[in-house]
Amino acid sequence: MSAGRTGAARRPRAQGARKPHGSAPERPGLAARKAAAKLLAAVVDARTPLDGLTDNEHGHPHYLALEARDRALVRAILGAALRRRGSIEGALSKRLKSPLPPNASTVSHILHVGAAQIMLLDVPDSAAVDLAVDHAKSDPRAARFAQLVNAILRGLARDKADGLPDASDVPDWFRDRLVAAYGPARADAMLAAQRHEAPTDFSVRGDPQKWAEALGGFVLPTGSVRVARSGAIPALPGFAEGEWWVQDAAAALPARLLGAVAGLRVADLCAAPGGKTAQLALAGAKVTAVDLSARRLARLAQNMERLRLEVDLMQANLLEWQPDEPFDAVLLDAPCSSTGTVRRHPDVAWTKTTADIDKLADLQRRLLERAVELVKPGGRIVFSNCSLDPREGEELVAGLLAGTTQVVAEPILPDELPGIAGFVTPEGWLRTSPADMQLGDPAISGMDGFFAARFRRV
Prior knowledge:
Elements: H1 3-16, H2 30-44, H3 50-53, H4 61-64, H5 68-83, H6 85-94, H7 105-120, H8 125-138, H9 146-158, H10 172-182, H11 184-194, E1 200-204, H12 208-215, E2 218-219, E3 225-227, E4 244-246, E5 265-269, H13 275-282, E6 286-291, H14 294-307, E7 312-315, E8 327-333, H15 348-351, H16 354-373, E9 375-385, H17 394-403, E10 407-409, E11 430-431, E12 451-457
Parallel strand pairs: 5-6, 5-8, 6-7, 8-9
Antiparallel strand pairs: 1-3, 1-4, 2-3, 9-12, 10-12, 11-12
């Protein structure tokens, strides 16, 4: 397309952002691609968590304007684009004669959305290319690059058999901290797992084998049920009856470290969305679920109603909350950087920073010190989070034990729970990673990165 024709096409498209009444409807599928690019920009440029952007009640307006099928497509595009961001950037850069100008971030996001569809999703190449070009033409900031978008994506589609280049798919800071903590080989294994979409795990009320068969999955050594792809969760057998809940196999371990809790008063701190609350209630504990967020606590209440479990709910700032009496046991699954969930939340690597880790570690230390005060002498405390960073795990716990006489470590034993022997450290802490639970196929392997430690109040 000549420069003159590019300019001629750009002016009507720029006006098209404010279509007059009666104008032609937008091409099918274009709104979904526009939403995907906008949300990708929010994640990468503004460090906005993807969960909030794709929340079906409070999400981004462009996402909420879509039908359910297009919302699913947007989530698939963003998952692929973020999970393989570094590799996609490498593939695009090879086809650019010179880097895009700094003010062309919109074009970059359009290209990433298109490339993710071509290289990683089951979307016709022609649809991915043509809609990306239409998107560029319709945006005044990108219209002059429409011909470039067309050329690059068509070239990518033509050579897609070559695959994506072997590049790091996370920011340098993320990989550097993994290498420092675990060494290059283990860090690379975690990052290799991160490239694959995570399977879905379930905690079940009754017989795991029965529900593995009903859900089309299998039982893990730890007792969780795993399926490679779950589809629409509410449509699965047993959902409406409250027979199970979605919970990563690693996330299901910390609550079990409290041991026999039947009849005990147990506080589940920072409890929402309630997977661990459900475990404790199902085990017979008298659970008080505490969370700062009213909205998250409302979600927990809905989950408990579906699961037919009774718990006491408390909206409170844990650092200020004063219960009437101390608890027999306390579980603190503390807010953290969530770096251990990078397989299922690939935006984490792009929305968090090292400063976030330091800030969250300081908060966790204060929350843990407060949790100790809420338990009776002789009572157990389990501290956990889904971070891979030792600053939020091993270093934090070692610092606490060195600085207080209120608690003593109660080491976790390798044979204490089925399937956890390989996750127990020499110190008696629990440490899992995305590289663990290798089952021969990436589609059914791995687990979230979790850390847990257990104490007893002196």
